[in-house]
Amino acid sequence: MSEIEALEAEAAALVLPAFSEETALRLGLDLVELARADGLPVVINVRTADRTLFHAALPGSSPENDAWARRKSNVALHFHAPSLLVGARLRAKERTLADQGLPATDYAAHGGAVPIRVQGTGVVAVVTVSGLPQVEDHRLVVQALRRLL
């Protein structure tokens, strides 16, 4: 199985039965717990297209991590796919976000943002981690979503 196929299969399995502000809080707090257990210097963000539902900046993170979280979550919301998967697809086609008319100031196809998909509804929000290498950011988000399921 290729990296793209594995990421697509993983994303397809991460479908929640429902999502609310309470779910966003539980997900965000779970990510804080996971990150604090390993002393990870990350920013955690859960948001919809127009509203932040949860945000935490853990010790060792920086304002740059906030900017990366915003840019990665924009990619996940725009493409309705994890930012790591979008990056892999673009690299496979030798394309960039700029080729799609998406400026680097607002979009980053680096791992760490995963859309929150609800069964029968589709993408309703995104959860993002920034502060680690991109694959580790992605894995932390996936771990928390699996725990939520």
Overview of this structure, please?
Helix content is 47%, strand content 19%. By secondary structure, the chain is an alpha+beta fold. Helix 2 (21-37) packs across helix 5. The mean pLDDT is 97. InterPro entries: PduO/GlcC-like, PduO/GlcC-like_sf, YBR137W-like.
CATH architecture identity: 2-Layer Sandwich
CATH-defined fold name: Beta-Lactamase
Q: In sequence order, what are the helices and strands, one letter per element?
A: HEHEEHHEEH
Q: Total helix count?
A: 5
Protein name: UPF0303 protein
InterPro entries: PduO/GlcC-like, PduO/GlcC-like_sf, YBR137W-like
Short description:
The protein is α+β, with helices and mostly antiparallel strands and 149 residues long.
SSE arrangement:
Blueprint lengths: L2 H11 L1 E2 L4 H17 L5 E5 L4 E6 L5 H17 L3 H10 L20 E6 L3 E9 L3 H15 L1
Parallel strand pairs: 1-4
Antiparallel strand pairs: 2-3, 2-5, 4-5
Q: What descriptive keywords fit this protein?
A:
PduO/GlcC-like, 149 residues, five-stranded mixed β-sheet, globular, Beta-Lactamase, alpha+beta, 47% helix, single chain, 19% strand
